[in-house]
Structure formats: structure tokens, C-alpha cells
């Protein structure tokens, strides 16, 4: 068993018997997150009241977030982003890439008196999880809790994470050369068509499904998608291990946010613990190469988060990356994938 319990300190001095009861709270919550059982099932299994279960889940999930967030997320500075970039270059052959980004709807039962605030384009109620991951399927930055109705263009521009990226305040490293011909380009995040093209956010060329797409653009789209698959796999691994996401969540707004927060930090914590101990049980590399994340229970894909309009600077940077991938950065199998 992973030593999660040891990472959560006692809130105050208490007797051993009381401490055992305190630890059992986290057993209860971890079972709820890992199995996806209903609160009624947890109530009967642990012989505690249903209202107690609801309050316990919220309390413990918030505690897990507060205790683990500083341990599992790196401090965003130039050195840390350079390490992430090295991983993307080594594993996915994308130079100057510092993350893969995507957003998911966390589907839940309609909150009391919420009206259409959380009603999304798929006809369900949801909050939005916007996340960036590294090349090894660890979350590096997340924004949790935007209403599902904001999925059409507003989430990325309005959330704190999106504002930092758009204004370039996220402390990426200074521009670096990708080869001798294309020179210096900024460090960037890869994303899909749902996001706007920015100097530090690369998205595919439009019309990637068309047969007449130029070869160089088709190759760029494939290579970008190959790196961007990291975030899809990260969501898929989290949903497969924390099965609370296999169906719509029935809880209050505060509890749903807390559940997502706890699941994200537990995902990172277990992966980092396994990396430190040299074991791979949580994410078996022979089995978790690709996850179809079109829609899994409480996780649903997000729609457009930005317009197709972009500046000349972003266009030039994408062209430089495309030229690099067609020449010095080319891979022998990339033409077979388009």
C-alpha cells in the first residue's frame, strides 16, 4: 500500500484509538475515489451515516489537496520547465515543448439552484478541468471549477492558468534555437483545435482530416498530436485508476471540486512515489500507451476554447517548427502516419 497515510499529519495530539479512527477516514475516502461506489454503498460498508460520508469526503479531499499539492506540483520556474522540455524532446521528439494541454468536462448531477450555470453543450451539467502535463503523464498545472456552460471560448481566456499563458507570465525559459536553419523560437505548449494559436501555444493546422492537406502540414499535425497525446493519456490513466470518474458524480459543488483536486494530487503522488521506488503498478507502460478519451463517464471532451484568429508571430513560429520537423527533426516513420 502506498504510504499516503504517513504524509497526512494528525491535526492535534490524540490517543492511539482516536488516531486509528482518523486514519480510517482516509481509507473510506480513498475507497470512494478508487472504486466509484456511491455514498450509500460507502455508508453501509463502513457503518457510518450518509450525511457523515458526504462531509467526510469533502473534508478529506480538501486535506489531501492542501497537504500534497506542494509536494507533487513543481514550482514553475525556468529550470523546472527546461526539465519538462527535455522530457518531451527525448520521448516525443518535440523541441522546446514544455507541456501538453487539454480541458475536460467533469460531469455531475445538477447542483441545487444552479439553473443553467453548469449546463454544457452536450446536455449535461459539468465543471471544467483544464490541465497541462509533462512527458511522463504527470500533471504540472491545473485549473478546476469553471462552469460547464463557459466551454465555448471563455474558459481558457478567463481562468488564471489561461491568463498567465496568454500574457506570457508563466515564467517559461528564454527563447532557444531548435536547429541551425530556423533559429530561436519560444518554448511552447501543444494543444488541439479547441485552443487558440499563440506564440507559446501550438495547435494543428486546420483541416487535418482533409485528404488534400499539404504533406508538410499533415506531418506537423501528426507530430504535434503525438506529443499532445500525453495529456489524453494522463486523463485516461486518472479515470481508469480513480473510478469516481467513470460515471456522473453526485455531490455538491464544493465536494465535486474537492474530489477533482484530490484525484489530481493523488495521481501525481502515486506516480512520483513509484518513480522514486522503481516500480510501475499504477501506470503499466506495456498497457497504457493510448487511451480513447472521447468520453469516459464523468470525463467528457471540451469544445472550442478560442477563436481561429492568430497573430503573425504565432504563425511564423508554427512555420519554423514545421520546417524543423520536415528536415533536421524528421522521423523515418512520420510519413507512414499521415
Short description:
With 338 residues, this protein is of the alpha/beta class. Helix content is 44%, strand content 12%. It is globular and about 70 Å long.
- What's the total count of β strands? 8
What is the helix fraction of residues, given as a range? 40-55%
The rough form would be described as globular
The helix-strand sequence is HHHHHEEEHHEEEEHHEH
Write down the Rg: 21 Å
Taking the alpha carbons of the first and last residues, their distance comes to: 44 Å
Largest sheet: 6 strands, mixed
Number of helices, counting only DSSP H or I runs of 4 residues or more: 10
- Determine the strand fraction and express it as a percent band: 5-15%
Mean pLDDT: 84
Which stretches are poorly predicted, pLDDT < 50 over at least 5 residues? 6-21
Structural class, by secondary structure, is: alpha/beta
Amino acid at each position: 500500500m502506498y504510504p499516503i497515510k504517513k504524509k497526512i499529519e494528525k491535526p492535534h495530539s490524540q490517543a492511539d484509538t482516536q488516531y486509528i479512527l482518523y486514519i480510517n477516514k482516509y481509507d473510506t475516502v480513498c475507497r470512494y475515489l478508487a472504486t466509484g461506489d456511491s455514498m450509500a454503498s460507502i455508508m453501509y460498508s463502513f457503518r457510518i451515516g450518509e450525511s457523515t460520508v458526504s462531509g467526510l469526503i469533502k473534508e478529506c479531499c480538501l486535506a489531501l489537496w492542501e497537504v500534497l499539492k506542494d509536494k507533487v506540483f513543481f514550482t514553475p520556474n525556468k529550470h523546472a520547465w527546461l526539465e519538462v522540455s527535455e522530457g518531451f524532446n527525448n520521448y516525443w521528439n518535440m523541441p522546446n515543448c514544455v507541456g501538453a494541454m487539454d480541458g475536460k468536462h467533469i460531469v455531475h448531477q445538477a447542483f441545487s439552484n444552479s439553473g443553467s450555470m453548469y449546463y454544457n453543450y452536450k446536455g449535461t451539467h459539468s465543471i471544467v478541468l483544464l490541465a497541462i502535463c509533462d512527458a511522463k503523464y504527470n500533471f504540472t498545472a491545473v485549473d478546476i471549477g469553471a462552469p460547464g456552460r463557459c466551454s465555448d471560448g471563455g474558459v481558457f481566456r478567463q481562468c488564471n492558468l489561461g491568463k498567465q499563458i496568454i500574457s506570457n507570465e508563466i515564467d517559461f525559459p528564454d527563447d532557444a534555437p531548435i536547429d541551425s536553419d530556423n533559429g530561436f523560437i519560444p518554448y511552447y505548449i501543444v494543444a488541439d483545435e479547441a485552443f487558440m494559436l499563440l506564440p507559446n501555444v501550438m495547435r494543428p493546422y486546420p483541416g487535418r482530416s482533409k485528404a488534400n492537406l499539404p504533406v508538410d502540414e499533415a506531418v506537423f499535425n501528426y507530430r504535434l498530436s503525438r506529443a499532445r497525446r500525453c495529456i489524453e493519456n494522463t486523463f485516461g490513466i486518472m479515470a481508469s485508476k480513480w473510478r469516481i470518474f467513470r460515471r456522473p458524480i453526485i455531490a455538491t459543488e464544493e465536494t465535486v471540486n474537492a474530489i477533482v483536486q484530490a484525484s489530481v494530487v493523488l495521481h501525481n503522488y502515486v506516480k512520483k512515489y513509484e518513480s522514486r521506488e522503481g516500480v510501475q503498478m499504477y501506470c503499466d507502460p506495456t498497457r497504457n500507451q493510448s487511451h480513447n478519451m472521447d468520453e469516459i463517464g464523468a470525463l467528457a471532451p471540451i469544445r472550442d476554447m478560442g477563436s481561429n484568429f492568430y497573430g503573425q508571430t504565432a504563425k511564423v513560429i508554427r512555420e519554423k517548427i514545421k520546417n524543423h520537423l520536415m528536415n533536421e527533426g524528421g522521423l523515418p516513420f512520420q510519413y507512414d502516419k499521415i
